[in-house]
Design a protein that fits this description.
The complex is a heterodimer of chains A (172) and B (188). With 172 residues, chain A is of the alpha+beta class. Chain A is built from 3 helices and 5 strands. Chain A has a 5-stranded antiparallel beta sheet. The N and C termini of chain A lie far apart (59 Å). Chain B has 188 residues and is an alpha+beta fold. Classes of the chains: A alpha+beta (172), B alpha+beta (188). Chains A and B meet through strand 3, helix 2 and helix 3 of A and strand 6, strand 7 and strand 9 of B.
Chain lengths: 172, 188
């Protein structure tokens, strides 16, 4: 059990595509370290293996402190999003890129499949805050940082005016 | 102690064309001028650039200003203002918006004025303003505004509620849709 240092950009490991986990037994130490590091970060709601320098497709989330009916602490191995819908924008920040916040469009509702640490096949549904955290962490597994997805004010203006127009139509 | 470097706010604008950003930033780069924050955008046929820059020690303010004159002869309009060390040192995070107001409705004169005046009267500071006349396929044209604002922490909860009520009232008066919502951020 160990708390590891969270890598910060420009560490090149944050830009690499991670390999699927094929040997669960060998991944247990990384899983434990991810859980310990997330807990030690205090405010952290999610962490991906490359953030502690392990280039494997593992994420750990825990949104308990922020979401009433959360999925709790979840270790998700080889996670794949199988359905997503209803995009919206939140300002995101990241432990690996501190001092920067930017608006990112993400799906509000997602369905995902993953393996549990014991090899059980999981199908989970997440929404809003928790869905955003999962999408953010899965991006890390592909070497994608949230800054790659920041949307421009102009895009937001057009999108929000589109939403308002739809609302007007519904109310009319 | 490090000598405080001279900083300027430059605004440059001109008819939008390919290569404009490269031309302006290239000129700065060749003189060793360092770019801090910037905001640039197209407004109709114009391209408008606002940049906060830091001069290298060896570049005198006068030569810098002369250098920028070169841009004027390229058909660009230009303005510059020297910033005090405290102005230049203020980090963008300190003016981070915590609420966003979106307004949409039939275009009418004074929309931004009425809302910005109201916002100011509640002690909030506008941090980013984007407005657009949607005159393409709409008849009569619509007007869309996104105003991001900062409500100081000590005023936030109560003041936001009061401002929300005042905004709804103004929106009803002008027959517009307006929505003030907190800008959530997620430190992951």
């Amino acid at each position: 059990m160990a708390v590891r240092a969270v890598l910060r950009y420009p560490d090149r490991r944050l830009r690499q595509r991670c390999a699927p986990v094929t040997d669960l037994a060998a991944a247990q130490e990384v899983i434990q370290d991810l859980c310990d590091t997330l807990q030690a970060s205090g405010h952290g709601v999610g962490i991906a293996a490359p953030q502690i320098g392990a280039l494997l497709r593992i994420i750990v989330i825990n949104c308990e402190a922020h979401v009433k009916k959360s999925l709790g602490l979840q270790v998700l191995i080889n996670p794949v999003i199988t359905a997503s819908e209803a995009y919206y924008s939140l300002r995101e920040g990241c432990m690996s890129l501190p001092d920067y916040l930017g608006p990112v469009d993400r799906a509000r509702r997602i369905t995902l499949e993953a393996l549990s640490p014991t090899g059980e096949q999981l199908t989970l549904q997440a929404q809003k805050f928790e869905a955003v955290v999962i999408q953010h962490e899965i991006d890390h597994l592909d070497g994608v940082l949230f800054i790659d997805r920041v949307s421009s004010p102009r895009t937001q203006l057009l999108r929000r005016s589109e939403l308002l127009k739809q609302k007007q139509h519904r109310e009319a | 102690m490090l000598k405080a470097m001279q900083a300027y706010l430059i605004s440059v604008q001109g008819p939008n064309r390919s290569g404009m950003v490269a031309e302006v930033t290239g000129l700065l780069y060749r003189q060793g001028v360092n770019l801090l924050d910037s905001s640039m955008s197209t407004l109709r046929g114009e391209f408008v650039m606002m940049l906060v820059v830091q001069l290298p020690e060896e570049l005198a303010a006068e030569s810098f200003e002369n250098l920028l004159d070169g841009l004027r002869s390229e058909g660009l309009s230009l303005n510059l203002r020297e910033l005090s060390p405290s102005e230049a040192g203020q980090r963008s995070a300190e003016s981070m918006p915590n609420y966003s107001l979106s307004v949409l409705g039939q275009d009418q004169t004074g929309m931004l004025y009425r809302f910005s005046e109201l916002i100011a009267s509640y002690g909030a500071n506008l941090t980013d303003v984007h407005t657009q006349l949607l005159d393409g396929s709409h008849s009569p044209p619509l007007y869309a505004m996104i105003l991001e604002l900062h409500l100081p922490a000590h005023k936030q909860a109560q003041q936001a509620e009061l401002l929300k009520v005042a905004i709804s009232k103004l929106a009803a008066e002008l027959d517009l849709d307006a929505d003030l919502h907190p800008l959530e951020s997620l430190e992951i």
